[in-house]
Here is the input.
Amino acid sequence: MHPAFSVIFLTTLIGAAQGLFLALFSTQVYSEFELLPGIGDTNYYGIGAAISLILLIGGLASSFFHLGHPERAWRSAACWRTSWLSREVIALPTMMLAVFVYGIIHLFGLDSIAFTHGEITLSTSLFVGIFGVVTTFALFICTAMIYACIKFLQEWASPLTVINYFLFGTASGFTLATALASYLGLQEHILFLGGWAIVLTILVFITRTASLYRNSRIKHKSTMQSAIGIRHNKIQQKAQGAMGGSFNTREYFHGKTAMFLKSVKFIFMILVFPVPVLLLSTSLNNGNTEVLIAAFVIQFIGLLAERWYFFAQANHPQNIYYQTV
Amino acid sequence: MTQLALIIDLNVCVGCSACVTSCKEWNTSGPAGFMSDENPYQKDPTGTFFNRVQTYEVGEFPKTETVHFPKSCLHCEEPPCVPVCPTGASYKRKLDGIVLVDYDKCIGCKYCSWACPYGAREIDEHQKVMKKCTLCVDRIYDENLPEAERKPACVLACPTNARLFGDVHDADSEVSEMIRDQGGYQLMPEWGTQPSNHYLPRRKNKITIHKDELVRVDNPLNKEQKEHHKPVDGSVLDDSSFI
Ligand code: SF4
Ligand code: SF4
Here is the structure.
């Protein structure tokens, strides 16, 4: 497929935003149950939610560049019964609303006790957070299923697609949360968040490698023979039905050399996994904010390359009809 | 239920592209607006088409066969392009099974084109909406046209009658009969899309003639044995010259 930058930015930005929100929420749960110290008078949750919201808005804005008619975008919520894209269109603003409310509660100190039972007191924001987590998960599933549900795009049609989207998002979100905690000087939280960021990055290394391995050995079901229905082993295309190319020759091909593809894979394999893990692990103890921010930025750039590769690698069966591209 | 469809006979298609041009001509002047082009008269022309003819060479030189292969939306019975559309712009008509795009609802997200394994949908780069074959829905029901012309433009244009149009759910229709008798098949059956359009395979047009079939042994007049113009031996008048 031809990788569209609007979609690359959409999926990476909202992935990081979702991961960041999950990081905020886990921190809050841990501190409400006193497994982590409180955040003191820093505005960790509020600022975190604001960053998450900015990333979500950035993703949403970039998705508009993908549409031919952005002014009609509101229509796309109509078919949520059948279309994962439509479901995503609903899940994204819902999550934005949840993050917004969550952020407002924390930024303006509007939190109150919602529930007490003996020793345990739970705050209102925690319940807003739970709602946010549900929408975050829903959004992860919707985004990934947009790709995983097209069964003849065999590189995508796998549960690994969903797992990878989830883990890539959470890994980059937790890395960002680590940098934020470090900026605010929350030493214990750096350890907690950074530890998770490393674990998630290693996990997604395993699952992405699995999907790369799967895709390198994939057996495409459609062949030249089934595509035009002529049972002969030697079929050569002589004309494609267009002189200067067509939508078919533009939309479904990445138009780059195999070498270029290989280098992109190499780049993201370095930038997404070993470099951030190295940077994270070296600065967990000294809380070096610059290094942690660099870890996030490098991982994010790597993710852009990863997403590009994700699209470029998918081989659409219609390409069989365009052998000479 | 009705399922209108095209049957394309690869045995007689000569690849003249009359269907391509008549499709473009009819649909670009249709009520849904023009089908835009880029550089139509310059180098590298490109544009929106509902139907294209491709050419394949089958076999190894010198034993090859050229197959011309017209390709358009197959109006699948289980169209994977329809449920993915977020706006409901893509739909399949209950009435006659035609798969259509509502150009006023389409947001141009291209998701449906990803979900069609045949690459039958094309975005109009200027109107920014998804387009595809409509089976000339604005023609086949038009009562102002004589009945014989209430067919898709491509079908009427085809000089070799390689395109047939009809209801593939009606077992007695001409198209159903063709599919049954001539080995009609569907493209990429492996995805369960059940295309309504069918293709008829190449058939060998060979007959074996034995000698006794050339000489009419049972002819009572036995004409073959008469020698009408027996050449005359010796010289004739024409041989001498009077110069
Ligand atoms: S051929 Fe493609 S566009 Fe046409 S109905 Fe089938 S899946 Fe949809
Ligand atoms: S491009 Fe138009 S018809 Fe296709 S899925 Fe998007 S909104 Fe639906």
